[in-house]
Amino acid sequence: MKICLRYLGDPGYQQGIGKELGVSQATVSRTVDRVVNSIFTQSNEWTKFPTTKHELTEAKGVWQSMYKFPTAIGGTHIGILKLNRHGDINRKGNLL
Questions:
Q1: Pairwise CA distance, residues 89 & 55, whole Å
Q2: Helix, strand, or coil here: 60?
Q3: For residue 95, is pLDDT > 70?
Q4: Which domain of life is it from (predicted)?
Q5: Nearest Cα to Cα of residue 80 among 7, 14, 5, 21
Q6: How far apart are CA 88 and CA 80, in angstroms?
Q7: pLDDT tens-digit profile of 23-73?
Q8: ∠ CA 8-1-82 to the nearest 5 degrees?
Q9: CB distance 24 to 18 below 8 Å
């Protein structure tokens, strides 16, 4: 999982990421493929989009009131720690 998160957080050359994490490029490729496919396979259980105008308005209201995020209808923010050389702020500007 760490390999996949590292790749998705800053997609670059798989060989470079493998070297950084001490694994081969093939391991990076297989790991990313397996994790992404697993997420995709289960996405219908985790993802639900509003199907009516009322549900859409309600979802927008929840995100606006909870997160001050206008026009969003859902989502997830997961804090992923960066390696020390990248600092202590994630890509969304949040302190970790």
A1: 34
A2: helix
A3: no
A4: Eukaryota
A5: 5
A6: 10
A7: 999 999 999 999 999 988 988 787 777 889 898 888 888 878 887 777 777
A8: 55
A9: yes
Determine the pLDDT at residue 54: 92
Cα distances (Å, whole numbers) of residue 3 to 8, 78, 84? 9, 16, 16
Instruction: Give the separation between CA 9 and CA 12, rounded to whole angstroms.
Output: 9
- CA neighbor of 38 nearest in space, from 77, 1, 79, 84: 1
| 65, amino acid identity | S
Query: 85 falls in which pLDDT band (50, 70, 90)?
Result: low
Q: Which of 78, 62, 73 is nearest to 5 (CA)?
A: 78
Q: Where do the structural domains in the chain lie, given as residue ranges?
A: 1-47, 48-85
Q: What is the pLDDT of residue 82?
A: 55
Q: Which residues pair with 89 in a beta bridge?
A: 95
The pair of structure tokens assigned to 35 is 């994790």
